[in-house]
Amino acid sequence: MSKSVETDWKDCDLVERIPGKMGGQPVIKGTRVRAQTIIKNFEAGLSVEELEENWPELPRSTITELIDFYHSHTPQPQ
Q1: What kind of architecture, by CATH, is found in domain 15-73?
Q2: What is the DSSP code string of 24-63?
Q3: C-alpha–C-alpha distance, residues 5 and 20, integer Å
Q4: What is the pTM of this model?
Q5: Where are the domains of the chain?
Q6: Under DSSP, is residue 69 helix (H, G, I), strand (E, B) or coil?
Q7: Is residue 2 packed enough to be buried (19+ CB in 10 Å), middle (13-18) or exposed (0-12)?
Q8: What is d(CA 58, CA 62) in angstroms, rounded to the nearest whole number?
Q9: How far is it, in rounded angstroms, from Cα 47 to Cα 63?
Q10: Which of 2, 14, 16, 53 is the most exposed place for a label (fewest CB within 10 A)?
Q11: Closest CA to 38 of 11, 23, 57, 20
C-alpha cells in the first residue's frame, strides 16, 4: 500500500492559500479552483485540452505550468 504524498505549493507562483477561501486549500490564484483538483483529474487521464474545457477560466499555460510544477516538486511515494 503506497502512502499519499502532499505537494508543497508554497513556491508555486500560480497558487495561493487564503484563510477562509476554499478552507485554506491551495487554489490557483484569482480562482476557487483547487490546485490538487487539476492534478487529480490530469492523473486520472484527462488531457490538458479536457482540463481547459472543464475549467475555461484557466489558460492552457496555467494548467501546463501547474502540472510541470507538481511533477518537479512532489516526492514520489515509496
Answers
A1: Orthogonal Bundle (1.10)
A2: G--EETTSS-BHHHHHHHHHTT--HHHHHHH-TTS-HHHH
A3: 24
A4: 0.85
A5: 15-73
A6: helix
A7: exposed
A8: 6
A9: 10
A10: 2
A11: 57
Q: What's the grid cell of residue 36?
A: 490538487
For residues 49 and 34, the answer to whether their CB atoms sit within 8 Å is no
pLDDT tens per residue across span 3-49: 445 788 999 999 999 999 999 999 999 999 999 999 999 999 999 99
DSSP three-state, residue 16: strand
- Set of cell numbers at residue 47: 488531457
Which three cell numbers, joined as nine digits, stand for 37? 483538483
C-alpha cell recorded at residue 78:
515509496
- Other Cβ atoms less than 10 A from the Cβ of 12: the count is 19
How many other CB atoms sit within 10 Å of the CB of residue 69? 19
